[in-house]
Amino acid sequence: MLATTVSLGRWQLSRAAQKEALQAQIEARKSLPPLSQGEFLALDPATEAMHRPVHLRGLWLAPHTVYLDNRQMHGVPGFYVLTPFALEDSNVTVLVQRGWIQRNFTDRAQLAPIETPSGLVDVTVRIAPPPAHLFELGKDAPAPAASAGSSPIRQNLDLEAFRADTALPLRTDVSLLQTGVASEGLQRDWPVPALGIEKHYGYAFQWFGLASLVVILYVWFQLIAPYRRARRLRRG
Q: What is the DSSP letter of 105?
């Protein structure tokens, strides 16, 4: 039992060390010089450069903007705003997570105004996984008072399905996070990816605690208790 619990505790520590190394790698990639648009387009898959900054030029496709519900920033519920971005001189569109807006607590369907520049624009973004999926009981539902399929408000967004619905030449292996200071009515204090490092340290503490308990019980029942019984027998 002692060998098993100690081994499990050390395994949890090794998992924590692996994730700390991954976190360090993510932070190092964020600080690298931005990839050019050509370098980004040449990535196959783009996941090879996950979390690296990229400089792109193209057009915002504002009519296809999507608002992902139940997303928080600094503990406040709201929406992540996602807009497709058509890259200049290419037949490629990417989905950009542009930022966050706060929810209207009296009318969920009332969205805060945002600005979407028209014409060709330059943006600095960071390569990221597709938007995380939240638990839902059924398929994405439209906002109240909106006809089915017409609402920009979604609980989750599947990039393959979105590509089929919009008929856009959308790249579906990654999405992009727009970085920088708040602008256009959007906040961009993106949360750090949750790797669960603290969880592994907690599990390691539990296993080492159980190992300590095994040692204490062994010493009590195998050494101290027999010694006390033997002393009582000698006295009797």
A: S
